[in-house]
User: What shape does this take?
Amino acid sequence: MIIASASEISKSFGVNTVLNKASFHINEGDRIGIIGDNGAGKTTLLSILSGELSYDSGELFISSRTDMGYLKQHDNFSSDNAVYPEMLALFAETAAVEESMHCLSGLISQKSSKGENVEGLLLEYDGLMQDFERKRGFTYKSEIKGVLSSMAFPEEYYDKKISMLSGGERTRLALASLLLRNPGLLLLDEPTNHLDIGTLKWLVQYLKNYSGTLLIVSHDRYFLDQTVNRIFEIQNSSLSVYEGNYTVYREKKQRKEEAAERKYEMQSREIRRQEDIIRRFRQHGTEKLAKRAASREKLLDHIERSERPAPLKKNIKINFKERYESGNDVLSVQDLSMSFAARNGSRALFSGISFDIKRRERICIVGPNGVGKTTLLKIITGRAAPDSGSVRLGRNVLPGYYDQEQALLSSGLTVLEELHDSFRLYKESELRNILGSFLFRGDDVFKQVSALSGGEKARLSLLKLMLSGANLLIMDEPTNHLDIYAKEAFEDALLFFPGTVIIVSHDRYLLNKIPTRIFEMSPNGIECYLGGYDYYVEKKQTILSGKSYLEGLGKAALSAYDSRPPHDTAPSPSKDARLEARRKSKEEEAKKRRLEKDLAKAEASIEELEKKIRMLESKMCLPEVFSDHQLSASCSLELSQSKQALDEAYEHWSNLHERFEK
Assistant: This one.
């Protein structure tokens, strides 16, 4: 059943057109991934669907029966509640029904003991019981604990004020809040930010089992492959729809681009050939050839000419080069330990961290959030001091550091000033050319660093790292905030880099493509695994006798979430009273089912007509059709009739939908 549809939706900000005549429909149960470059309009589309942002033109329909939840990139918590009370507040109505049930149960017991008639009270109680069950009354407390645990909020966080949480923790709490609400239509804007691999795995499993409809903006290619079955691509202000997950989309898109390019070239060659024939006919000057030239000109005038395929947006150009080669022994870390201040004294973060890294190795460090991965990188780069242990850089090692928080950028400078401040030997014209290769063009170079988006700051930090000439790249979550195309360019640059790489990342595509070794970090040390992420997971499963480390992180949460406590929250009245109350709704349910069948037939008719129209439009582009006047006219008439039938089908569907919602 269609729960939302858009027809030629357009949205501009000043002279910048973000969406241009975007049309699509969303079926109940769809899992849609929205992709595109940074700034393409993905978040804008979600804001329009959620009603937070108006559109300039077009038509948008969203079923009034659809309960919608929207996870933004930045949470909007205004409450100063603690974590657990904030989650309990989501079920205030459930708690109120539960209290009413307890009160009514006491009244029923009291009147029954006096021999009074309680049939009316039993019916009332039955209604409350059904409402309580619909509002997840028997499970909501276990659901809260399960989801909080899966979002890395153990019980010691339950009393912690939301205002005291970090940005990443607030984002995870906002996601937990939304999952507990369980809306029918879930809009998620970059839900994988700030999640470690174990939590990501849990979220993937949760969304796979989610019964509602999903719209997900994400640059996480692995996540999209696992969770979506349709792709909305926004590119050059246009929206294109592809069936399938991200990998299927990439294959279809490549074939589509190749076919469009071939079609344009073939048509262009044919037009040039016809124009050349017409010119030759006219050069001969005979009346007969002049008529034939005029006839061919009419045929050319009726051709619906293909537009040249729009050029793809230029991608970022990354090329890491080392200023000089390091020695073979790049880094030696021995017995590092680190702790941090807590209420009851100091608390150990990690200990026993030891490893050696050789030249040209690409090391990816993985582990749960809070284990100290970022702290380890800061110790290696000299930005933090360990409690004990040693870090030794090898001969001729020149490290370069990428900070995921972008704290190394000066917010008061412009983009050009930030680059010139670090690389004074470059002329301004040279720096502007370099910035252009990282998509900072025109007046973009005069933007304040503080006004840049997350993706723009990431690109600027990568550019500074690239120009540094470092032969040891140390990077903390470098693909956060990069769009998919920038991620692919970045990964290719790392593969061709002749130096050494150390990366902390949760990006599973990168973890499969880049590392020569994976370091799994825990509070008690580091375990090393050769190869990429898939082999690492397989090896862990073997070591743990089939119990994957990743599955273990979410196992307790899933068990708690799926558990069902005994129905002892309130006493259960007689089954006869409940059955009597339910009989009254059977006729209405039957009507609903008939309308649902009619809606399904109407939607099938719409899809068939749309398919027929696309076929006819493609057919009319064929040379053997547009060169035949009769066949072309017949196709044109059939196309016109089909479009009229489609309008009538949509009108019928709209009428059915109004009846269904009453």
